[in-house]
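Dear all,

This email documents one entry for the complex benchmark we are building for the journal club exercise. For each entry we list the sequence lines for every component of the assembly. Then comes the predicted three-dimensional structure of the complex as a token string, followed by one or two observations. Please use this as the template for your own entries, and keep the labels exactly as they appear.
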Amino acid sequence: MEIKVLGPGCTNCYKMEELAKKASTELGIDATVEKVSDIQEIMKYTMSTPGLVVNGKLKHSGKPLPDTEKVKELIKAEM
Amino acid sequence: MLKEFASYVTYGLIKLEHGSRLADALEFFIYDTIKIFLLLSVIIFIVSIIRSYFPPEKTKKILSHKKEFIGNILAALLGVVTPFCSCSAVPLFIGFVEAGVPLGVTFSFLISSPMVNEVAVVLLWGLFGWKITAIYIGTGLLVAIFGGFIIGKLRLEKWVEEYVYKIHTGQGQETLKQTFKERIQYAKWNTADILKRVWLFILIAIGIGGFIHGYVPQDFLTQYAGPKNPFAVPVAVALGVPLYSNAAGVIPIVYALMEKGLSMGTVLAFMMAVTALSLPEMIILRKVIKMPLLAIFVGIMTVTIISVGYLFNWVM
């Protein structure tokens, strides 16, 4: 499973990365969490950061951040 | 009802003497604080729900390939309701240009968005009354429409960084569906988030209004910066540029300045300079546009804002 966190480097983007890591650990799945800060790459998915992409699909964008449970749900939906 | 509560606290609970300066000040402070926070919570909540229907992706679609002028007007209006912070100015700019939104129309949006928003409206309304609020919204939109329109007419596309045109957003860029429950949640979160950031500024503003009111002469600033001084407006604009703040931070300062005799046009110009013409935003914009375009943008904004200031000093 491939998870991407989109964000140029704001506080919320780091929080999003933490959330994604925590959620995948708690789900006990084999997933790579990659932080994407390249603007061109981000723009492929959304204009509002932070974004969460699971297996190439945009699952969340912008503020407010989802909580861990919500992130788990979003990941599960792509499993 | 709020008035009764304020006097109950002042005279019933704290038992201050009727009619004393301190009692008056405290009563005013309690009344105004509750009134403004109620107004803020209700209006931000409602605007947040409206906003959730206008994500940047949708605004981009509406503005794409729009004719100039009509496009400028639409962009200025959408700037009021589309959620935006200067940290997302770069992706937004690229997204707009890539989607075929004309350059001038994009600028109309970038100018109006930080300048005219719900926090500014509520604070102005609560502290200064609806007339000044309406004037601020009206002139703010005009500045955004004409600023963007002129930039569009000058055909400056060559001074946009080349890489902006090379980026192709994927077809997958679409809006996520939101349920109404999620919109309500977003609105609650947004209201709390804004209140958290501004409550202290607002208390200080009301405090200045209530307590310092009687202690500094009303016309303290009039002799230096009243409507008769032709330099007041440009100086206010020049002071506003390095100050970077959102509307919530600057309105308290403005409130204090106006209490002490700064004229209306000068105050408007200062507020617009702080919110729409800030140094950090220029640095962010420099990532997507080249120096000449940035300079022209700053030049046009400066001239327009100063003209607004003079106009209002002259009319009022």
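Observations: Chain B touches chain A through 26 residues (CB under 8 Å). The longest helix of chain B spans residues 180-212.
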